[in-house]
Specification:
The complex is a heterodimer.
Chain A: H1 2-15, H2 17-25, H3 27-52, H4 54-60, H5 65-77, H6 81-89, H7 91-113, H8 118-141, H9 152-178
Helix pairs in contact in A: 1-3, 2-3, 3-4, 3-7, 3-9, 5-7, 5-8, 6-7, 8-9
Chain B: H1 2-24, H2 33-44, E1 53-55, E2 60-61, E3 70-76, H3 83-97, E4 107-113, H4 121-130, E5 138-142, H5 146-155, E6 160-162, E7 168-170, E8 174-177, E9 183-187, H6 192-207
Helix pairs in contact in B: 3-6
Classes of the chains: A mainly alpha, B alpha+beta.
Keywords (chain A): Membrane, Transmembrane, Transmembrane helix
Pfam families (chain B): SCO1-SenC
Keywords (chain B): Copper, Disulfide bond, Membrane, Metal-binding, Transmembrane, Transmembrane helix
Amino acid sequence: MKQAIYGLGIYLFLMLPPVVTLLESIMVVHMHMQMPLLVMVGMLFTPFLQQTFPAFFEKWNENGVPGIVLFMIIISYWMIPRTMDEALTVSAAEIFKFISLPFLAGVPLRDSWSKLTIKGKNSIFILLSILFGIMAWIYILSPNQICNSYLIKEQKALGWTFLLTGLCIVIYFIQTLFIDKEEYGET
Amino acid sequence: MIKKRSTFALIIVIMFGFGLFLIGTDGFTAYTAEQARTMKLVEEKPEFPKVTLEDSKERVYSLSEFQGKYVMLTFIYTACTDVCLLLEMNLAQVYNQIPEQYIGEDIVFMSISFDPENDDPATLEHYRNYFNSDGETWRMARIPDQQELDGLLDRFGVIVIPDNNGHFAHNAAFYLVNPEGKLVDVMDYENIDQAASKVNAILRTEVGDKS
């Protein structure tokens, strides 16, 4: 319950018009800060929702696969250059962003992660690194302005942050293969 | 039973995702706002609004000066150091690929500056020499009235963001306006041959083979 309240606080804060304008004025912050924060809000809501609707999560996301696929679909969707532009110019797209990232990406991610098998988790790490690598490649090497609302300079910066994030995922993934958490008393 | 329900949920999720991408990209055709914008323009065929143009020879007129002719447009500013130069160089190549008998008679070329403050007729006159534009069948002009300019840019979907250092971030394309003053095509400025053959095909069918 406490987590849900923190989540709600962050959610409302992110919705404040000046905060929205500020975060969306910088491309990297829009993609790598506002959007992940919205996913995090959803993750903070998850325990509360799981307690309120236990049957729903139990029934429809029993093995975690539908949830994690939904998460991947939603985050891939928001990586399409066009959707970023539309979030700024079409208000329906902006509203969809504020609903889809917490509730269709954040909630299913947290609900699914613990249910996934090791194999499932590994595939997600690999898929995410490939996806981030592709996005880095597109944003760094494109000679054209891909997003009408942002400058090419910002686009290149976004590409490099994609590459860094991708690398972090790869490093984290590799360490999970070699380090057994249980040996350190964490379960 | 349980396994079945998960599979069912997975199918629903995948169908939702498919629908989302289908709608979000106009049926998997437009992945950037620029592509979406171009498709919408070609579909809507907006009319060139009434604006007053002032060209490099200080002549003042509106687009109806070219009634009955196709007009190939680009939007530029002369202080631009990258995209505009390429855009105009490519436009020059398209110009050279149009058979001479059509030039000036059935089609005129026009580069419109969106920086009227700095691009006065003298500047445009100087600028046009870089590209061997003759100032007659390929003119360079500004729209002195900012409000008229904004109206045109908005209608044709030209996005211009000033960076406050005298430069602008902007999108670039070739715009073809038909003899009735309606925008009929927006072409990729980097694909010179494709643009030229498209324009030539339109001229051949609409005007007829003159040779």
